[in-house]
Amino acid sequence: MEKKSQHQSSSLIRKTDGEDFSDLNYESGFGNSFSSEAIDGALPRGQNSPLVCPFGLYAEQISGTSFTSPRKLNQRRIKPSATHEPFKPRVPAHGKLVSEFDKSNSYTTPTQLRWKPVDIPDSPTDFIDGLYTICGAGSSFLRHGYAIHMYTANKSMDNCAFCNADGDFLVVPQKGRLWIATECGKLEVSPGEIAVLPQGFRFAVSLPDGPSRGYIAEIFGTHFQLPDLGPIGANGLAAPRDFLVPTAWFEEGSRLGYTIVQKFGGELFTARQDFSPFNVVAWHGNYVPYKYDLSKFCPFNTVLVDHGDPSINTVLTAPTDKPGVALLDFVIFPPRWLVAEHTFRPPYYHRNCMSEFMGLIRGGYEAKADGFLPGGASLHSCMTPHGPDTKTYEATIARGSEAGPYKITDTMAFMFESCLIPRICPWALESPFMDHDYYRCWIGLRSHFSYEEADNESDGELTMWDMEQRILCA
Ligand SMILES: O=C(O)Cc1cc(O)ccc1O
Ligand SMILES: [Fe+2]
Question: Looking at the domain assignment, is residue 451 inside a domain?
Fold first, then answer.
């Protein structure tokens, strides 16, 4: 479906600076072909590469997949983005970003890991400096894998833009709004919303609320898509129309000493140019940044007995070549009614061949009475056993099988789940925020096993085994 911004005319030319987020406009949809003009007529009609573009603009294309795949964005910009000095390694080097995970830069452990919320630094730190990789697998060079990062920042990016050549960022703010200027326009992303910034887009992050913290999943070699709904049918989970894409907006004029910071193979490089990269007057295509409000999610769940797998709450999935096996699923645990009868309603105790990184945006999480806090994180890797802590278990059993419908409120937890087993960065393992007592949350789980009880509860008929036992005990 081709959509064109309705609201734009030459009287609404957007030339505001990147700090002015008072004029936000979005188009809605997921995966459609969008079309947006900050000046009427800036997109050439009927072709992409006319000899001369309207208003003397340059035509430029961003390809998010190989040329032979149909995902492109065509932009019309004041100057091509190639107009800059050569890239040089950034000084000082960043040092805490990883995009290829191996024994030289990361560790592995099957132990359950949990982190307390990391403090936001006092010293001036912008979104780029505040990024650090927790864990990941695979390689951005080989175009297969992912990295999980967090950020803590307190200052807007100044006269610079970030461009990630390695993969797509799925940003989950936990504290503080993000004002993200992109080449397609502006996004305001609040805690409780997420943004996807696809590979190769230039963007700048401002922090209108100051201190900010959040989580990022980065995927290499593929893009996020909506999960198939299978037997659910047409409606449910995340609806395409709730995904919002920015509308064209541009900055004009010279910006002396402007820096492009390019993440390439996990390292940062900088290049100088004398103009803003946000000089795209019009664009069309289906390779775009977007945001989504998690409160719009329509959860499905069991309505009689038992506990469904969390895949039912998948917002976005990044596929591998194997059907049904995700490079990275983004799953949420939103407020919802729990109604199942004679059922242990919290997550079951389990081991999973997929690896589970979890974060908490607000409130509490149904499986952990203590210790898993907003802004904190946990990692349960492939086949690492985990589940509700002792307090949650005891409280659930005490409530008994007659518990009525119950609504979990004030919560928004999420999981990045992957088929690839993450290696963990040294600063995450050595972090002062590592919860070394995490294992204790299960140590108090008592054995409730009672052979007598099991025996009494049988229907009274003695089996051969029962009789043998009785004879042996006599
Ligand atoms: O481990 C977790 O808390 C996440 C999770 C939740 C759930 O309801 C079922 C399985 C699962 O891994
Ligand atoms: Fe789990």
Answer: no
Whether the CA torsion 389, 391, 394, 398 is positive or negative: it is negative
Distances (CA, A) of 186 to 51, 261, 448: 30, 19, 56
Domain interval for residue 339: 297-443
What are the residues whose beta carbons fall under 8 Å from the beta carbon of 465, sequence distance 6 or more? none
CATH of the domain at 417: 2.60.120.10
Whether residue 80 is predicted with pLDDT greater than 80 in this model: the reply is no
**Does the residue 415 lie in any domain?**
yes
Q: Which of 341, 339, 389 is nearest to 364 (CA)?
A: 389
Does the Cβ of 310 fall within 6 Å of ligand 1? yes
Which ligand 1 atom is nearest residue 352's CA?
12
Which is the closest atom of ligand 1 to the Cα of 309? 9
Segment 323-356, tens digit of pLDDT? 999 999 999 999 999 999 999 999 999 999 999 9
- 198 CA to centre of own chain: 12
Ligand 1: which residue has its CA nearest to atom 12? 310
How far, in Å, from the CA of 227 to the mean position of ligand 1? 18
Q: Is the C-beta atom of 299 inside 6 A of ligand 1?
A: no
Tell me the sheet residues that pair with 162.
Answer: 203, 261
What pLDDT does 66 receive?
Answer: 80
Alpha helices in 326-419 (DSSP H): 390-399
Distance (Å, rounded) from C-alpha 354 to C-alpha 381? Answer: 7
How many separate domains does the chain show?
A: 1
Residue numbers belonging to the annotated binding site: 350, 356, 365, 386
Q: Which residues are designated catalytic? A: 307
State how far the Cα of 259 lies from the Cα of 270, in Å rounded to an integer. 6
